[in-house]
Specification:
Elements: H1 2-23, H2 28-44, H3 48-55, H4 57-60, H5 63-81, H6 85-111
Helix pairs in contact: 2-5, 5-6
Length: 118
C-alpha cells in the first residue's frame, strides 16, 4: 500500500506541475521555485509531515521535499543559534543533497557525451 500511496500522490503532484507548464506562461524555473516554496509553506502550517507519513517518497522526492528539508534546517538552526540560524540553517540542511547532485552530475558528464540538437 505504501508504494501505491507514493505513486498516487507523487503522480498527482507531477500532473499538477504538468498542468501549470502547459496552461500557464510560467517558466520551468519559476515552477520549480513555486514547488520549493510550497514545501516550505506546507511545513510551516504542519501539513507536510502527515503527507510524508501517508505518501513517503511520493512527497519527499519532488521539490516539495527540498523545501521541507530547508524549513526543518532553518528551524533547528534558529533554536540553536538564534536569529543567525536563519542564514546558516538552510545551507547546512541542503548541503548533502546539493553536493550529491553536483558530484553525480559531474560523474555522469564524464561517462556520457552531450550532443547539440539540430
Amino acid at each position: 500500500m505504501d508504494y501505491l500511496n507514493a505513486f498516487l500522490v507523487g503522480g498527482l503532484i507531477c500532473a499538477l506541475v504538468q498542468l501549470l507548464m502547459e496552461k500557464t506562461k510560467l517558466m520551468p524555473g519559476r515552477i520549480m521555485v513555486l514547488l520549493v516554496v510550497s514545501g516550505v509553506a506546507l511545513s510551516a502550517v504542519g501539513v507536510y509531515e502527515p503527507m510524508l507519513k501517508f505518501a513517503g517518497a511520493g512527497v519527499s522526492v519532488p521539490l516539495l521535499g527540498f523545501g521541507h528539508v530547508l524549513m526543518k534546517g532553518v528551524g533547528e538552526a534558529v533554536r540553536e543559534q538564534g536569529i543567525l540560524g536563519l542564514f546558516a540553517g538552510g545551507f547546512r540542511a541542503g548541503a548533502i543533497g546539493t553536493a550529491a547532485a553536483l558530484i553525480f552530475g559531474y560523474f555522469a558528464s564524464l561517462l556520457f557525451r552531450s550532443k547539440m540538437k539540430k
